[in-house]
């Protein structure tokens, strides 16, 4: 059963970093470090033509690494303290686990104010874009494919909730965070809001984070987080996949 090491790895010490920054990253385990220069090169200086996504914490670019692999390069906003917290949370949550239905983290870049995550590239974009967005008419999502996607997401969540220790609650399960590879195998992505659940606790009281329309009532109203919050979000996502339509209810739920 995968477990999370939370100890400092000296490999992360590098030029251009202050002791305060090193302290921020003392929880990161041994992962590959990319230089900012290298990532600029593989994205053509983060060219708009290579941009494949954009969210509240930054932009995502497509790039081809030196080993020939295509990568999704997620550049977090340097201005936001929340962006740094998101960066740390995402690395802690995903760096030491592997599953067919989770994105794979290749490494990261930590130079000056730059916070960049490097993931494997997903050829068929996100479920939000491919099924529910502009590209939905170019691909036939028959019931066999939809069933495969639903089951894959469920397996990924079950892995996070049951097999990883401490358990992980994703907190932002939604169509734009489900990526599809060349075979339309779903991959859960964007672990920036993920929470590690301590053993032998019924819930964690925390600030409410996530996306309106996907929030479980007990979490949205009282801030009581359990794994069931992800299950609720998954239920909303299932309805979207079955109907082929986005959830338009952006109101806070009531208990």
Automatic annotation (TrEMBL):
Xref: InterPro entries: CR_Ser/Thr_kinase, Kinase-like_dom_sf, Prot_kinase_dom, Protein_kinase_ATP_BS, Ser/Thr_kinase_AS
Organism annotation: Opuntia streptacantha (Prickly pear cactus)
Keyword Cell wall biogenesis/degradation: no
Record keywords: ATP-binding, Kinase, Nucleotide-binding, Serine/threonine-protein kinase, Transferase
Pfam families: Pkinase
GO molecular function: ATP binding; protein serine/threonine kinase activity
Keyword Nucleotide-binding recorded: yes
PROSITE patterns attached to this UniProt entry: PROTEIN_KINASE_ATP, PROTEIN_KINASE_DOM, PROTEIN_KINASE_ST
Stated name of the protein: non-specific serine/threonine protein kinase
Protein kinase domain: residues covered: 46-255
SUPFAM superfamilies: Protein kinase-like (PK-like) (SSF56112)
Catalytic reaction(s) noted: L-seryl-[protein] + ATP = O-phospho-L-seryl-[protein] + ADP + H(+); L-threonyl-[protein] + ATP = O-phospho-L-threonyl-[protein] + ADP + H(+)
Entries under PANTHER family matching the protein: CYSTEINE-RICH RECEPTOR-LIKE PROTEIN KINASE 3
């Amino acid at each position: 059963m995968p477990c999370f090491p939370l100890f400092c790895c000296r490999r992360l010490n590098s030029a251009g970093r202050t002791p305060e920054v090193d302290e921020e990253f003392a929880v990161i385990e041994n992962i590959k470090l990319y230089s900012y220069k290298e990532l600029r090169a593989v994205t053509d200086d983060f060219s708009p033509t290579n941009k494949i996504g954009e969210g509240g914490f930054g932009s995502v670019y497509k790039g081809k690494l030196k080993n020939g692999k295509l990568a999704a390069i997620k550049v977090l906003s340097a201005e936001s303290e929340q962006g740094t917290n998101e960066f740390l949370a995402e690395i802690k949550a995903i760096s030491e686990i592997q599953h067919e239905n989770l994105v794979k983290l290749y490494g990261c870049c930590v130079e000056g104010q730059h916070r960049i995550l490097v993931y494997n590239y997903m050829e068929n974009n996100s479920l939000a874009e491919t099924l529910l967005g502009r590209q939905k008419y170019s691909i036939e999502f028959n019931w066999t494919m939809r069933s495969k996607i639903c089951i894959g997401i469920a397996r990924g969540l079950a892995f996070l909730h049951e097999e990883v220790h401490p358990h992980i609650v994703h907190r932002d399960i939604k169509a734009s965070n489900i990526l599809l590879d060349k075979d339309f195998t779903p991959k859960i992505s964007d672990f920036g809001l993920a929470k590690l659940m301590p053993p032998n606790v019924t819930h964690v009281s925390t600030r409410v984070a996530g996306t309106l329309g996907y929030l479980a009532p007990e979490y949205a109203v009282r801030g009581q987080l359990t794994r069931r919050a992800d299950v609720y979000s998954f239920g909303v996502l299932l309805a979207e996949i079955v109907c082929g339509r986005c959830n338009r209810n952006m109101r806070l739920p009531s208990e």
